Amino acid sequence: MAKIIGGIGTSHVPTIGVAYDKGKQEDPAWKPMFDGYKPIADWLAKEKPDAMVMFYNDHCSSFFFDFYPTFALGISDAFPIADEGAGLRNLPPVKGNIELQAHIAESLVNDEFDLTVFHDKPLDHGCLSPLPLLWPHQPDWPGAIVPIEVNVLQFPLPTARRCYRLGQALRRAIESYPEDLKVVVVGTGGLSHQVHGERVGFNNTDWDHEFLELLEKNPEKLTELKHIDFVERGGAESVEQIMWLAMRGALGDSIKQTHLNYYLATTTAMTAVLYENA
Question: Which residues form the Extradiol ring-cleavage dioxygenase class III enzyme subunit B domain (predicted)?
């Protein structure tokens, strides 16, 4: 059967992709952030997972406020790269695995998660700002992506507990897949940041590290928080942290944090963390 071999939490700041495309990996302002992904990329190169499930939010590239699903899962053999206004990035289409994607979709629906299913829609920086830092992509990506979009933009949002339960259901779906695949689960977004309003530029380093500690050791406590709790502690956009809880729910009870890079140099606390089975 398929198995989950680890989890990754990562910010999906759009400027990460811009800096990557402009070759700023050695720029003093960006080097600490890019270097923080190298141990995770090395681990992925060693473990060679077949698929990566990515919890992300679409930034009105494929879904819009007249139709923005709570949870949506992509089923396609390839996903285009979204043009978010600056032209297409020089990345190959993201590979899919239709059999695995369809199995996960059916399993989640049977587990009472009412999914939207999408085909062939472009993926934006929610997936693609961190992905080239994790996986090589020339001439092609080494494995398949299972994109699971989560609504963190338009209220009502799914609760933190619902996202955690979604991750647990994902684990059941993957472990019931009959093919021997290695799967990594990724939660994207966050950590603390606010990009609009009176608190624009707000960060809370103490809360970020408390969140990371609880995510590893006591995620159930985080599921008790309301959306306003995340907003007050980490800024309006830090509600994206509920997607990290979906990733954490897929990992089971006993894990260990084997790498963490936390870099606060812009309006967002850019973070990359790796979890493995304890």
Answer: 8-273
Q: Cα(196)–Cα(214) distance, rounded to whole angstroms? A: 27
Q: Are 169 and 88 in contact (CB under 8 A)?
A: no
Catalytic-labelled residue, pool 59, 119, 125, 137: 125
Residue 253's contacts (CB-CB under 8 Å, 6 or more residues apart) are: none
d(CA 192, CA 269): 6
Encode pLDDT of 142-161 as tens digits.
999 999 999 999 999 999 99
Q: Give catalytic status of residue 119 as yes or no.
A: no
Distances (CA, A) of 34 to 129, 140, 272: 12, 21, 10
- The SS3 of residue 126 is helix
Determine the pLDDT at residue 254: 87
Domain count, the chain: 1
- Per-residue model confidence (pLDDT) at position 146: 98
Radius of gyration (C-alpha) of the chain in whole angstroms = 17
Choice among 193, 196, 209, 227 that is catalytic: 193
Q: Which of 154, 156, 146 is nearest to 246 (CA)?
A: 146
Q: Do β-strands 51-56 and 182-188 pair in parallel, antiparallel, or remain unpaired?
A: parallel
Q: What are phi and psi of 69, to 5 degrees?
A: -70, 150
Domain that holds residue 187: 3-277
pTM tops 0.85, yes or no = yes
The reply to whether 193 belongs to the active site is yes
Instruction: Look at the alpha carbons of 43, 130, 145, 209 in this order and tell me if their dihedral is positive or negative.
Output: positive
**Tell me, what CATH number does 41's domain have?**
3.40.830.10
Residue type, 15: T
DSSP-derived letter for residue 237 is G
